[in-house]
TrEMBL record, chain A:
Stated role: Non-catalytic component of the 20S core proteasome complex involved in the proteolytic degradation of most intracellular proteins. This complex plays numerous essential roles within the cell by associating with different regulatory particles. Associated with two 19S regulatory particles, forms the 26S proteasome and thus participates in the ATP-dependent degradation of ubiquitinated proteins.
Originating species: Cyprinus carpio carpio
Family statement: Belongs to the peptidase T1B family.
Signal peptide as annotated in the record: none
Compartments, as annotated in UniProt: Cytoplasm; Nucleus
Taxonomic path: Eukaryota, Metazoa, Chordata, Craniata, Vertebrata
Superkingdom field: Eukaryota
The name this protein goes by in its record: Proteasome subunit beta
Self-association state and partner proteins as the record states: Component of the proteasome complex.
Database matches in InterPro entries: Ntn_hydrolases_N, Proteasome_beta2, Proteasome_sua/b, Proteasome_suB-type
UniProt-listed Pfam families: Proteasome
A Gene Ontology term for the protein's cellular component: cytoplasm
Automatic annotation (TrEMBL), chain B:
Cytoplasm found in the keyword field: yes
Record's keyword terms, sorted: Cytoplasm, Proteasome
CDD domains for the chain: proteasome_beta_type_5 (cd03761)
Subcellular location: Nucleus
Protein name as annotated: Proteasome subunit beta
Length: 180, 352
């Protein structure tokens, strides 16, 4: 959802950028910075693949992103973006990297940005286990969204959900909030 | 250049040579003059033999006694005195190209005066797609902190034959960037022998505006266009499903100087946009006819001008199809207002 002075301009705005077959970059923050920075990272990751013949691993991509964010941080044009980088590595398995606009980087089992984070992190703390099945994970996500629906002041009509596993990125059904 | 003169450099060269080194005669370079300060900086400090001490910058320097006048007269007076001095220069140096200044307009905003309140983007513009193409509509009021600077300014500007852009924000910035975009699209068309798509045009505009992020530049445009070849069948003649925009070549993209770029089916921009949104959200559907769409767009702008102080005067409406854009005649909404009042009065008479 893109808001402009309190009006929703678009209800189906996709904030995820596909960096490679198994890496997604979720980018939120200031209006133009998000797209500019995310597309820059996206094209650079693809360029790496073209030049070297193989794709960057999620850890490498995350560190590359962090380095760029840090370089711009003390320039005249810092990017005010908060990022989540999610990917599947052949050797290391799935990985989630949390990055904020001050270019802090942390590998985390679960993460959230924005005001929604205040509401959802404790649910994730309570119910997350490293050995969740796919159905349990989707249920956990639904629990988070129910809480947002109940307590969050902004109306968030729909969420895009994607799953990354050894076979790549899979679009899952959009999760709506609200009475069915 | 202006700074050097203010700082007291002696006898700067006459202004035609601002844009070129002294060795060259005056040729308006299209791109080099934009970066004037850099390599040509040295040229400006040399003295020209035989020229009078008249600096063109004196035209724009305020004369002390007028500083106490109200801001509305301030700009007018200095520009008209500049006009007479310019004519004198033309007489003395006939080889110079003559410059025609626009008629002096009141300009109450000067950078040294703090703004009394934040200026809203005083406008209502909208664009939406339907089975018959794209409708782009806007009001025509240009406001300047509480004053209607121009009641008849065009806010929907055609960029090329199949693309129009609605503008919101600073009028000057919008007009300039629209022209720059038209130029770049035309160059693309000449080089690649095809028109750039609306998405491409939006991306180009967004990337051109990005370096100015954080400055006072303010442009919020909705590009409404038709992509694809004209040889394709006219979509309006074939029956479409109620919600089948996928075959359509229409594109509506909102581009903002913040860097935001959104593609969608319906957008409204400006201070009057909430009022317009309320009308459009309930009345716009894919299968509407051209007359219906025109009526809805016109109604939306009318309602917005009714409630929003910064929107008003006339409504411009453009309709873009596979054959290009067509412009509806500018309509004065004052008539509509009085017609509605008349209807209300009649209704009340009948009721009692």
């Amino acid at each position: 959802m893109e808001y402009l002075i309190g009006i929703q301009m678009k209800h189906d705005y996709d904030k995820m950028f596909k960096l490679s077959e198994k890496i997604l970059l979720l980018c939120v923050g200031e209006a133009g910075d998000t797209v500019q920075f995310a597309e820059y990272i996206q094209k650079n990751v693809q360029l790496y693949k073209m030049r070297n013949g193989y794709e960057l691993s999620p850890a490498a991509a995350a560190n590359f992103t962090r380095k760029n964010l840090a370089d711009y941080l003390r320039s005249r044009t810092p990017y005010h973006v908060n990022l989540l980088l999610a990917g599947y590595d052949e050797a290391d398995g799935p990985g989630l990297y949390y990055m904020d606009y001050l270019s802090a980087l942390a590998k985390a089992p679960f993460a959230a940005h924005g005001y929604g984070a205040f509401l959802t992190l404790s649910i994730l703390d309570r119910y997350y286990r490293p050995d969740l099945t796919r159905e349990e994970a989707v249920d956990l996500l639904k629990k988070c969204l129910e809480e947002l629906n109940k307590r969050f002041i902004l109306n968030l009509p729909s969420f895009t959900v994607r799953l990354i596993d050894k076979d790549g990125i899979h679009d899952m059904e959009k999760l709506p909030i609200g009475p069915k | 250049m202006a700074l050097q003169d203010v700082c007291g450099l002696h006898n700067p060269p006459l202004f035609p040579q601002w844009t070129a080194p002294l060795s060259r005669s005056f040729m308006p370079e299209d791109s080099t003059h934009l970066s004037g300060g850099g390599i040509h900086g040295e040229a400006f400090s040399t003295r020209l033999p035989g020229r009078g001490g008249l600096s063109p910058l004196e035209f724009y320097m305020p004369i002390a006694e007028y500083l106490t006048e109200s801001p509305i007269n301030f700009g007018q007076t200095s520009l008209s005195s500049a006009l007479t001095k310019l004519l004198e220069i033309d007489h003395l140096y006939p080889s110079l190209p003559s410059i025609s200044l626009p008629p002096p307009t009141p300009c109450p905003i000067s950078p040294s005066v703090p703004l009394p309140f934040t200026l809203s983007h005083g406008t209502t513009t909208l664009g939406f797609a339907f089975q018959g193409g794209v409708i782009a509509a806007a009001d025509t009021r240009s406001s300047c902190s509480g004053l209607v600077a121009c009641p008849a300014s065009p806010k929907v500007l055609p960029i090329h034959s199949h693309l129009v852009g609605t503008t919101s924000g600073t009028s000057a910035d919008c007009a300039l960037w629209k022209r720059i975009l038209s130029r770049e699209l035309r160059l693309y068309q000449l080089r690649h022998r095809r028109r750039l798509s609306t998405g491409g045009a939006a991306k180009l505009l967004s990337h051109m505006l990005h370096p100015f992020k954080g400055t006072e530049l303010c442009v919020a445009a909705t590009l409404c266009g038709w992509d694809g070849d004209e040889e394709k069948h006219d979509v309006a003649s074939t029956p479409q499903h109620a919600n089948a925009p996928t075959n359509q070549m229409t594109a509506i993209i909102y581009v903002c100087s913040d860097g935001l770029r959104l593609q969608g089916e319906l957008f409204s921009v400006g201070s009057g946009s909430p009022y317009a949104y309320s009308i459009l959200d309930s009345s716009v559907y894919w299968g509407m006819s051209v007359q219906e769409a025109t009526a809805v767009a016109r109604e939306a702008v009318y309602r917005a001008t009714y409630r929003d102080a910064y929107s008003g005067n006339n409504v411009d409406l453009y309709h873009v199809t596979a054959k290009g854009w067509r412009r509806r005649e500018r309509e004065n909404l004052k008539e509509e207002y009085y017609r509605e009042k008349e209807r209300e009065r009649k209704r009340r008479v009948i009721a009692y």
